[in-house]
Write a structure and sequence with these properties.
This protein has 260 residues and is of the alpha/beta class. Helix content is 41%, strand content 16%. Strands 3, 4, 5, 6 and 10 form a five-stranded parallel beta sheet that branches. It has a three-stranded mixed beta sheet with strand order 7-9-11. GO terms for molecular function: L-threonine 3-dehydrogenase activity.
């Protein structure tokens, strides 16, 4: 694993951890050569809400960073995974369900950068033979880390706030349906995608999902464990983002190809 920030002790103790700046191509080359890397999983990105607050930085990290890992993977013949997102779709996309192949046209810099990554990866695959693989993940739910600035993060933050404070302020309307996946299922899908033979992949980018729900439905379940939970709905700019995203993912392509 690598990052530009100091990792928590439990992350550091789980295996090798090194400093890496996605914008420093020479540094990345040294890591690939010195560590004998053959698979590269590229998670570095500014997420939807954070990206809208700092578009120039999102352009550098999300676009220039992808260019670096594409060139690196081409040069050293790496198998490259770049995650995409429900944010790669926009208000012109079918929302329920949203298929793998349809109009996208996202309205956030995060989404635009992910469409760019999807198409660039496909181009590198056909032009240079790059073994590029991509999954469009929905909102990812986990319990052990605080949210990182995404529009679906309410589905994680509510658990922290319910246990700490017994109340939660939700930035989405109660009936805003979005697709979600738990972190262990997310990682399982990633591993299965990376292990799949390249010739078995009919597409280079697939949708993947596990469930879909609204804030109201989630809070109803949380109250079964924390009955005193108080929820106030205060929609902000993230509501407009969520309204442009898929409500339900169609993942029939990856199911029919039997690799995820």
């Amino acid at each position: 694993m690598s990052d530009i920030v100091r990792p928590p002790k439990e992350v550091f103790n789980e295996g090798p951890f090194i400093y890496a700046d996605i914008l420093d191509f020479k540094n990345l080359q040294e890591i690939v050569v010195n560590e004998r890397v053959d698979w590269l999983i590229h998670f570095s990105a500014l997420l939807s809400a954070i990206g809208e607050r700092n578009v120039p930085l999102a352009m550098r990290v999300n676009v220039e960073g992808v260019h670096n890992v594409m060139e690196l993977s081409k040069q050293y013949r790496l198998r490259l995974f770049v995650p995409s997102t429900i944010g790669a779709f926009g208000p012109d996309s079918p929302r329920n369900p949203t298929p793998d192949l349809c109009v996208q046209r996202p309205r956030t810099i995060y989404g635009v950068s992910k469409v760019h990554a999807e198409l660039l990866g496909e181009y590198y695959h056909h032009k240079f033979g790059l073994d590029f693989r991509c999954l469009r993940f929905p909102g990812v739910i986990s319990y052990d880390t605080e949210p990182g600035g995404g529009t679906t993060d309410y589905a994680v933050q509510v658990f922290h706030d319910a246990l700490r404070e017994g109340k939660f302020s939700c930035y989405l309307e109660p009936d805003t349906r979005l697709p979600m996946i738990y972190i262990t299922d997310c990682l399982r899908a990633l591993v299965e995608m990376m292990e799949a033979p390249s010739e078995a992949l009919k597409l280079r980018t697939y949708n993947v999902t596990a469930m879909d729900f609204t804030p109201e439905e989630l809070f109803r379940e949380v109250r079964k464990l924390v009955p005193e939970l108080e929820v106030v709905y205060r929609p902000d700019g993230r509501q407009k983002i969520a309204d442009s995203w898929p409500q339900v993912f169609d993942e029939s392509h990856n199911q029919s190809h039997n690799h995820i």
